[in-house]
Design a protein that fits this description.
Elements: H1 2-9, H2 24-62, H3 64-69, E1 73-74, E2 81-82, H4 85-116, H5 119-134, H6 137-155, H7 164-188, H8 192-200, H9 205-216, H10 218-233, H11 237-242, H12 263-270, H13 279-313, H14 329-356, H15 359-374, H16 381-414, H17 420-424, E3 427-428, E4 433-434, H18 437-468, H19 473-487, H20 490-504, H21 511-535, H22 539-547, H23 552-581, H24 584-587, H25 609-619, H26 624-657
Antiparallel strand pairs: 1-2, 3-4
């Protein structure tokens, strides 16, 4: 009786559990798992170390103030200058424009999916949004270069459509899936008691959404916008291809048709041609360090907000109660403060519009405010609800139309290039003729090697975090390292791979360096998805196995991993899709534009579909057919991977419901 009482007080993760093994083999396994978990933190440390090692000399020779606030970036001049002010200002301008586009569309789409769409419509729209997230950035850039910039040039009678507006539109589209998915999760987390209480008091459903649900989910929606901002700031290939790449601050500052150059674009353009060890080389690593600091601040802010949401949503003393409770008087006071903050936020956004947007858009903003003040507020609640629903339908409609346009353009113009010769042949005439077989095989080699590198480390790290530890300072540090690794821009992974693997370890530009670099990039995805899969396994299975005399590791290996396998497989498939579509991490570590031979060892360079498409579209005129053919093959490869992940997830969810 006493023993049974003690058993109930123990937890499965308690190291003093009566049936836990303390033998040597379990201790060795635990040590290996801890090393895998610590690998993420060590990777972040090494990335910072190598960026500092190669970036600090630039601060010493140029001067930190001149480097950060110098107004001219001209490394090729008679007197080279390395002022990054136009680079980071352009980065912030392009990101601001992207958020002005993506935030209302993303939040409106999330509200529609969560609150209005039927389950059948939701089952169609959610995979569509996930497919939007799966389109490789170089395909977005190719679409922007060929279609978007040409449309802007013709519509606004410009000399060139490659400008700030093109970059903001493209980054806004790319940030939409992040904002939609995170905002939807935040809205879904609002308890149904809030909805029922509001509707029971006679409010319309739109009043319930706008005055109860959205304010309750405001922190999560804010985190979604910040994460979308981080996605936009860290993007490389798309902005390189559509922004014009002129290192100038728009004059006037609100000139959205001015060409600009971002921090990531500068790294992508200049790193491949710089002399190693030169002042220009060190200045580029200084740019990478500045980019990393900006993205880390953005992602840490989002993580802090999300953690606060989780702390509010869970508590150790709510025994047997639901995760959320009805709001008390203090909660209503907090809502009042939130309303005040929202009023100030509206004022700030309006002032930013006055600063950054041209006179036409500012006039439109004023008209909308007057419309809201003198007409919309006078509408009765039912008419207001109809108008709001129209806007929500328009939001999700625009998202789906954008996805349809991109897919239609790539598929319709890429199909004529499809042939057996194109898929199995070798490139000719700088890629204008022939096929892309070496690029297909090189992509598969890179992705396969990256997964072989990242999968065992990621799974082992997740097992340690879920099965062997409680929440502590060590696990917090490890998770912070994984989150920071996940928020690191892909171009920074490429620079780290170049500095550490290509130069320091003397691998040279080769397949192995690309595999490891891509593996580091997808490692956080594998860790996170594996963690969630392991947490979904009921503790009763662990208790039963340990009670029968199994060791900790035997329980994990034979009882826990089997039901968690579908989630682990899903994370692996998503990682494959991301690795297959990335260009920036392999630009300086693994790839060449064209070769007539397949790699004979891991120390040979390879072709890859994303890089091949980038060079074809930006440096080889007269290759339109093969450009679209390459884009279609890459798109189909990545889309197939994401579709498999969606099918696996849906099958797993159905089996759980059954």
């Amino acid at each position: 009786m006493t023993y049974g009482t003690d058993l109930k007080k123990k937890t499965v993760k308690d190291e003093k559990f009566p049936y836990s093994s303390s033998n040597l083999s379990d201790q060795i396994v635990r040590g290996i798992l801890f090393a895998a978990a610590a690998f993420g933190v060590l990777t972040v440390f090494f990335i910072l170390l190598f960026l500092l090692k190669d970036g600090i000399p630039a601060f010493a020779s140029i001067g930190l103030y001149d480097f950060l606030f110098g107004s001219v970036w001209n490394p090729g001049g008679a007197n080279p200058t390395y002022g990054t002010l136009p680079l980071w200002v352009d980065t912030l301008l392009v990101t601001l424009g992207a958020m002005i586009i993506a935030a209302p569309l993303g939040i409106g789409s999330a509200i529609y999916i969560s609150e209005i769409a039927s389950s059948r419509i939701r089952s169609v729209i959610k995979p569509a949004v996930e497919l939007l997230a799966g389109i490789p950035s170089v395909v977005y850039g190719f679409f922007g270069l060929v279609i978007l910039t040409d449309w802007l040039r013709i519509t606004f009678d410009l000399a060139t459509g490659e400008c700030w507006l093109a970059g903001s539109i493209l980054l806004g589209i790319m940030a939409l899936p992040t904002i939609i998915s995170v905002s939807e999760d935040a809205i879904n987390a609002v308890p149904d008691n809030f909805r029922r209480g509001s509707l029971g008091l006679g409010a319309t459903y739109w009043q319930t959404i706008s005055k109860v649900i959205v304010p309750a989910a405001l922190s999560g929606i804010t985190a979604a916008i910040i994460l979308g901002m981080g996605r936009a700031i860290g993007e490389t290939m798309a902005v390189m291809m559509v922004t014009g790449n002129s290192a100038i601050i728009p004059d006037p500052i609100y000139n959205i048709f001015s060409p600009v150059r971002t921090l990531t674009g500068t790294l992508g353009i200049e790193m491949g041609e710089v002399a190693v060890g030169s002042e220009h080389y060190h200045a580029l690593f200084g740019v990478a360090l500045l980019l990393l600091v900006i993205t880390l601040v953005v992602n840490l802010s989002a993580r802090h907000i999300i953690n606060r949401i989780r702390l509010k949503g869970t508590g150790s003393n709510n025994k047997g109660r639901s995760k959320f409770s009805l709001p008390n008087r203090d909660a209503f006071k907090l809502s009042e403060r939130s309303k005040e903050r929202l009023k100030y936020a509206v004022i700030v956004v309006f002032l930013l519009c006055l600063l950054y947007i041209n006179i036409f858009l500012c006039t439109a903003a004023v008209a909308l405010i007057l419309l809201w003040k003198f007409w919309l507020q006078s509408l009765d609640p039912k008419k207001m609800q109809k108008l709001a629903y129209v806007l929500l339908y328009m939001s999700i409609g625009i998202v789906l139309v954008v996805l349809g346009i991109i897919l239609y353009d790539i598929i319709s113009k890429g199909l004529p290039a499809m042939s057996w010769e194109f898929l199995t042949g070798y490139p000719k005439d700088l890629g204008r003729e022939g096929g892309i077989f070496p690029a297909i095989i090189g992509t598969l080699y890179l992705v396969g090697g990256a997964i072989l590198f990242a999968l065992p480390i990621g799974v082992c790290a997740a097992i340690y975090l879920v099965e062997y530890t409680k929440e502590s300072r060590i696990t917090s540090i490890i998770r912070s390292g994984v989150d920071l690794l996940n928020g690191t821009p892909s171009i920074v992974f490429g620079l780290f791979g170049f500095a550490f693997l290509v130069l320091f370890l003397d691998f040279g530009v080769c397949l192995l360096a690309g595999m490891i670099t891509l593996g580091l990039m997808v490692l956080p995805t594998i860790i996170r998805t594996t963690e969630e899969a392991l947490k979904s396994v009921p503790d009763s299975l662990r208790h039963g196995s340990l009670a029968l005399g199994a060791t900790k590791w035997q329980t994990i290996r034979k009882v826990v991993l089997s039901p968690a396998a579908p989630g682990i497989i899903t994370g692996t498939i998503l990682s494959i899709g991301r690795a297959a579509g990335e260009t920036a991490p392999i630009m300086f570590t693994a790839v060449v534009f064209t070769t007539r031979f397949l790699p004979s060892s891991v120390f040979d360079p390879v072709m890859a579909l994303p890089y091949h498409l980038f060079i074809l579209s930006t440096n080889v005129p007269g290759a339109t057919t093969n450009q679209y053919g390459t884009a279609l093959v890459l798109l189909l490869l990545v889309m197939a991977v994401y579709c498999i992940a969606i099918l696996v997830r849906n099958h797993y969810q159905k089996s759980l419901r059954w």
